[in-house]
Specification:
alpha/beta, 4-stranded antiparallel sheet, Rossmann fold, binds adenosine-5'-diphosphate, about 230 residues, single chain, 10 strands, 6-stranded mixed sheet, about 35% helix
């Protein structure tokens, strides 16, 4: 479902400070996989994740989701792929301060393309369902700044899955959490994976990588190892 072939990414292309961050990344991630991307700081993990998330482009190579080659579609179509197929989870949760948990989860539903937008009552029901799925229904009306780190990340995950994306991309999702909360959040990801969602997690944490069905190690802009832990 996710297919990358020889992806090259250069920052500041054509300038004196041009820097090739990815030197030709090739990989395939099948439907329903749960993969970790690991590597030292500066290896190119975030660059790769941003390309996968259609947030950033690449210079050459091929990237296809479900057989649709992304290099060949317009910006508008790209935004549509991003909204419909991909849910993002960030290390710092990226919740809107001053909004309740429910309001945060409703954001992607409110911004869904016109043809997919549901009625407000249905959007609210869907957001509540998502909060229930991550064990946060009772906090729906709480302001997110009053929640703990683990609770914030649960809300962020509920928001990421609100539009029912097939792929969840997470950038150091447990980086700001203690080890007990990390375990809880990984259980949420595993449950979502068991429900059939494809998950890719960038992480520094070996305990997070161990829970994934595949570990992809990147060093200096190249994949150096792909392994399947038992
Ligand atoms: P990681 O996520 O593994 O820490 P990154 O993907 O953030 O690594 O960065 C890979 C390399 O690309 C690093 O050397 C970094 O300095 C460089 N880089 C990242 N973003 C930019 C940018 N916007 N402009 C120039 N260089 C960048």
């Amino acid at each position: 479902m996710i297919y990358l072939k020889d992806i090259v990414k250069t920052y500041n292309k054509g300038k004196s400070n041009a820097y090739e961050a990815l030197h030709g990344i090739s990989m395939e991630i099948k439907d329903g996989e749960m993969a970790a991307v690991i590597g030292t700081s500066g290896a190119g993990k975030s660059t790769l994740l941003h390309i996968l998330a259609c947030i950033d482009g690449y210079d050459s190579g091929e990237y296809a989701i479900d057989g649709m080659e992304l290099g060949k579609i317009s910006e508008k179509q790209m935004a549509q792929v991003r909204n419909e197929k991909i849910g993002m989870v960030m290390q710092d949760f990226a919740l809107v301060e001053g909004f309740t948990a429910l309001d945060n989860v409703m954001i992607p539903l409110d911004f869904a393309g016109r043809q997919h937008r549901r009625k407000r009552k249905e959007r609210k029901e869907r957001a509540l369902e998502m909060l229930e799925l991550v064990g946060m229904a009772e906090y729906a009306d709480k302001q997110t700044n009053n929640l703990s780190g683990g609770q914030k990340q649960r809300v962020a995950i509920a928001r990421a899955i609100a539009n029912n994306p097939s792929i969840i991309l997470a950038d150091e999702p447990t980086g700001a959490l203690d080890s007990a909360t990390t375990k809880e959040i990984m259980k949420v990801f595993r449950d979502l994976n068991e429900q059939g969602r494809t998950i890719i997690i960038v992480t520094h944490d070996p305990t997070v990588a161990e829970e994934c069905s595949r570990v992809i190690r990147i060093e200096d802009g190249r994949i150096v190892k792909q392994e399947t832990p038992c």
